[in-house]
Amino acid sequence: MALEKSPKIPIVMLSSGHTMPVVALGTFDYNFEPQTAKEAVIEAIKAGYRHFDTASVYGSEGAVGEAIAEAVQLGLIGSRTEVFITSKLWCTDNHPNRVLPAIRYSLKYASNIAGL
Fold first, then answer.
1. pLDDT at residue 3, rounded to an integer
2. Domain NADP-dependent oxidoreductase, which positions (predicted)?
3. Which of 14, 30, 76, 94 is the most exposed place for a label (fewest CB within 10 A)?
4. Active-site entry in 30, 49, 58, 109
């Protein structure tokens, strides 16, 4: 994953060889509104953010994916590889028969919306 270093947000090298910005925009909100989240992610990209934190239980994975796809279309970023997305396996899915389906759902949902 080739993340460009933002002049405002430092990055770290992970043991996997990927880089990760050390500051992320969180997308949890008790009164979640997809359009508001999408606009917040786009504005964060304009401000230099390249790391976004989401979770299936937040309901924000789709909005994050849409925002990234729009940011690419607007030329704010060149491609999905310029951002780092953190999601979580929620505790209710932490059972042997639920782990892989939950992870696949998160990856498929965000990827489909981002047009990947």
1. 59
2. 25-109
3. 30
4. 58
Residue 105 annotated to the active site: no
Dump pLDDT digits (tens) for 74-113. Answer: 999 999 889 999 988 889 999 999 999 998 888 876 665 5
- Single-letter amino acid code for the residue at 105: Y
* Residue count of the chain: 116
Identify the sign of the CA torsion 116, 11, 14, 91. Answer: negative
